[in-house]
Design brief:
CATH topology: Jelly Rolls
Oligomer: single chain
Keywords: Dioxygenase, Iron, Metal-binding, Oxidoreductase
Number of strands: 9
CATH superfamily: B-lactam Antibiotic, Isopenicillin N Synthase, Chain
InterPro entries: DIOX_N, IPNS-like_FE2OG_OXY, IPNS-like_sf, Oxoglu/Fe-dep_dioxygenase_dom
Structural class: alpha+beta
Shape: globular
GO molecular function: dioxygenase activity; metal ion binding
Strand order of the largest sheet: 1-2-9-6
Distance between the termini: 52 Å
Largest sheet: 4 strands, mixed
Order of helices and strands: HHHEHEHHEEHHEEEEEH
Number of domains: 1
Cofactor: Fe cation
Strand content: 15-25%
Helix content: 25-40%
Number of helices: 9
Family: Belongs to the iron/ascorbate-dependent oxidoreductase family.
Length: 284
């Protein structure tokens, strides 16, 4: 009988995952139902919850780079290229300020995503899908059925470039802002790829000519309040399968990056964006 126990446990987990997915209400639906304990499918293995903190030192703060309009004069440009190259090589992460995206666009994007996730459940269900071919996907955990533990997170996402979705296919709460924000991020992305190309000693347009700037996937994550935050994670350790990720944090915080074996906090800075060098850029 003992040998069958793991199979029973696996079956139970599979049943729980399927039942959770079929609600089409995500983690927010659990909170709306008034749960006080998180379901077992979200309980992370203890080893993944350990987070060794670095020594208290400025050496363990991700670099912040002032883009200053992209460096219109040659001296500023050279300085920017050097700083970005150094940050990308040593950290793989950096924050950018004075990046050109208006503060009200950033704030409206955050508010719009929050409004989508907190709106009437029946409206959200209309967007729920696990079909990667869908123009617009709302779901909880893209790897729900393959990961060791589900993350405490719901996500709204779509490709906004090269073929932006039709306005009528987007949520009323945030669709207009998704398109506007995407246009701004594309402009910033092109500048960053120019600076990274120069940092690599290549022609300014080298990475753009490789089509690194052709596609944009916009993801709006939502992390509902958790009754047992010490037992789960909003997002487990990972790297991004992209060329670059440009991340807009809200004011709550919680983001960490791995550096020299330590998990380093990235406190929210109003107006700043976090840039992450993705797997595809490293592979090149």
């Amino acid at each position: 009988m003992e040998s069958s126990l793991p199979q029973v446990a696996a079956l139970d987990r599979s049943t729980l995952l399927k039942a959770f997915d079929e609600t089409k209400t995500g983690v927010k639906g659990l909170i709306d139902a008034g749960i006080t304990e998180i379901p077992s499918i979200f309980r992370a293995p203890p080893a993944t919850l350990t987070s060794p903190k670095p020594p208290s030192s400025s050496d363990f703060s991700i670099p912040t780079i002032d883009l200053k309009g992209g460096g219109t004069d040659s001296i500023t440009r050279r300085s920017l290229v050097e700083k970005i190259g150094d940050a990308a090589e040593k950290w793989g992460f950096f924050q950018v300020i004075n990046h050109g995206i208006p503060m009200d666009v950033l704030e409206k994007m955050i508010d719009g995503i929050r409004e989508f996730h907190e709106q009437d459940t029946e409206v959200k269900k209309g967007f729920y899908s696990r079909d990667p071919a869908s123009k617009m996907v709302y779901s909880s955990n893209f790897d729900l059925f393959s990961s060791p533990a589900a993350n405490w997170r719901d996500t709204l996402g779509c490709y906004t470039a090269p073929d932006p979705p039709r306005p009528e296919d987007l949520p009323a709460t945030c669709g207009e802002m998704m398109i506007e924000y995407s246009k701004e991020v594309m402009k910033l992305g092109k500048l960053l790829f120019e600076l990274l190309s120069e940092a690599l000693g290549l022609n300014t347009n080298h990475l753009k000519d490789m089509d690194c700037t052709n596609s944009l996937l916009l993801l709006g994550h939502y992390y509902p309040p958790c009754p047992q935050p010490d037992l789960t994670l909003g997002l487990t350790k990972h790297s991004d399968n992209s060329f670059l990720t440009i991340l807009l944090q809200d004011h709550i915080g919680g983001l960490q990056v791995l550096h020299d074996q330590y998990w380093v906090d990235v406190p929210p800075v109003p107006g700043a964006l976090v840039v992450n060098v993705g797997d595809l850029l490293q592979a090149n």
